[in-house]
Amino acid sequence: MLAAAAAVALISGAPTLAQDTAKAAGPAPAAPQAKGDDPYLWLEEVEGEKAIDWAKKQNEQTFQRLKGDPRFEPLRADAEAIFTARDRIAYGSLEGGQVDNFWQDATNVRGVWRRAAVDSYRTADPKWDIVLDLDALSKAENENWVYKGHTCLAPESTLCLVNLSRGGKDAVVVREYDAAKKEFVKGGFELPEAKQTVAWADKDTLLVATDFGPDTMTDSGYARQVRLWKRGSDLSKAPILLNVGKTDVWARPAVFQRPEGTTILLNRGPDFFTEEWHLVGKDGKPAKLNLPLGIDLRGVIDGRLLLLLRADWAVAGKTFAKGTLVAVPVAEAAAGTPKTVETVLAPSATASIEDVSVAKDAVYIDLLDNVVGKLVSAKRGAQGWTLADVALPGQGSLSITSTDAFSTDVLVNYTNFLQPDTLYLMPAGGKPEAIKSLPARFDSAPYKTEQRFATSKDGTKVPYFIVGPKDMKLDGENPTLLYGYGGFEISQTPRYLSAFGKSWLQAGGVYVVANIRGGGEFGPAWHQAALKENRQRAFDDFIAVGEDLVKTKVTKPARLGIQGGSNGGLLTGATMTQRPDLFGAVIVAVPLLDMLRYHTLLAGASWMGEYGNPDIPAERAYISKYSPYQNLKPTVTYPEAFVYTSTKDDRVHPGHARKFVARLQEFGKPVVYYENIEGGHSAAANLKQRAEVTALQLVYLMQKLMEKPSN
């Protein structure tokens, strides 16, 4: 979702919002009107002249206060130096026997797509071949292009579809590119700007899910149709393979090209957490697979679908528990109820599967056990699936950087809060070799990391990580920043505290990450425990961690700040309105805040599986109890929040943040606001902007938590 990636994490130095004082910076906010009326609907006009003018005036006040702080420029320059440093790890994807990398630095602000041979990539100074220069392209075409990735036709990976976004939006222009000739294909495949999914069937055929015109998009703003588009033909006349309902989330293709053959699948998404799959046969006709909806398709190998179960599945005389990774023959699912369902891995009660990646000969599973990473390989033989632990460092985060269906090589990354990232190559799936390491950005010797548990309102033990000085005094005076997300089955695992975290620690701060319900730290059950009518549990968990930090005298409310982005912005907005007494600072980034209208704004309808449908009275009743925008009260004293968003965010509507700020100002409450006029859901279109929003956040937190008089 939002998230994607959701989460705009402090550790990554993501953007932030700024606005100052309780004085309205634009047209005076209107007084509240009759019940059910919203006086700030004009702020939902994304590019409306009045709304943009309001946002720019807010920015002026914010910049005067935060950029005017003498700490801002050193913090910004330090962050930019880290973000653009040439000694960063050039993470890449294994494609066509090479490693593809997208690189941005002080010279290549928009970035370059480049390639290197695997053997060269293993060296300290790889020989990169630039495939596409985004700065040069943007200048030549007079466009504000932001690179959003590419999809190449395997196994050669020469013909590619490049996704280009204007200003960082999710909506992209798709253009066919020849990576060998380093030029766009004349008369090649090209699609206008839209939220779209495109996949190669073969070199002359695409599967396209896009905006085909009136009534071809779902209420969530995604494609309703998948069409088969032959090179040189009219897209509007391309045959429709799948057409889903308007209230479904999306229709999209998924093509798995492997040595043993190509599997073409079509996905209908009834909601964000259910999947209906159709197999496109050799005759070009789709057939629905006989599978449950509560699944997460993670790949294909040897004619078998790899399914991560989101619900228990009773089939073939057995019951497979949710959270289990199973393998199901494609042919059996197409013919009827599968007779052969194999367990690949069933996690323990304290573990969950984070990621599944498929190489030529094996499946690699990123496992969390009590929020500590572990890597497992799985291979299928005559006796079924054989599992093997991959020897990598413990007590940190592991992530599978890349596999390739036509290669046995694997790239894996390891890190923790205080240890810089190390990238490992597993040649032919063998022993991991450390090939690249991020240099330390700060001296970690004075600091330590500890995992603790807080007790939530209903008695649930909620883990959290705390990073601070080894000699930290438990006197309640430590400036502390608590980060959380708590949604969409996204886990919060240890990541190196570069840039933002480094500056925060060195200034005397303590950093905390909460593993609250709604995330995926303990599998689907941990996520589902905070869905819909149980959303309050995520907020209760977050509040419990804050209370535990105060109880154990790590900090006190005047020194405690919280930060979250996207769904995490909902988290911080809700906890701010519910427990304003517990926090001295609140960062609310690219947030969801008007939960009674969220489903009508941009991609909002796609998240009703997470939050519920406000149009259903029973669901509106529980949503209205926590919706931050509606729960602001003129008689309550709130901590001065720092709210930020992006005009170009076409995932979470900027109106959420704008209206929340306007309502606070209407009530005479201090609030800081910043709106990046470009940047998409990350609120930063390039590394320089990322450095700027990092510094804005740091200055705000230092002002609020490090200068506030102790009382």
Protein architecture, described:
It is a single chain. By secondary structure, the chain is of the alpha+beta class. The chain has a domain at 97-153 and 156-194. Helix content is 19%, strand content 32%. The protein contains 14 helices and 39 strands. The chain has an 8-stranded mixed sheet with strand order 32-33-35-34-36-37-38-39, sandwiched between helices. Strands 5, 6, 7, 8 and 9 form a 5-stranded antiparallel sheet that branches. The chain has a 4-stranded antiparallel sheet with strand order 1-2-3-4. Residues 1-35 have low confidence and may be disordered. One of its GO terms (biological process) is proteolysis.
What structural class should be given to the helix and strand makeup? alpha+beta
Dominant shape: globular
What's the pLDDT, averaged over the residues?
A: 92
Strand line-up across the major sheet: 32-33-35-34-36-37-38-39
Distance between the termini: 41 Å
Portion of residues in helices?
A: 10-25%
Q: What proportion of the residues form beta strands (DSSP E)?
A: 25-35%
Query: What is the makeup of the main sheet?
Result: 8 strands, mixed
Helix segment tally: 14
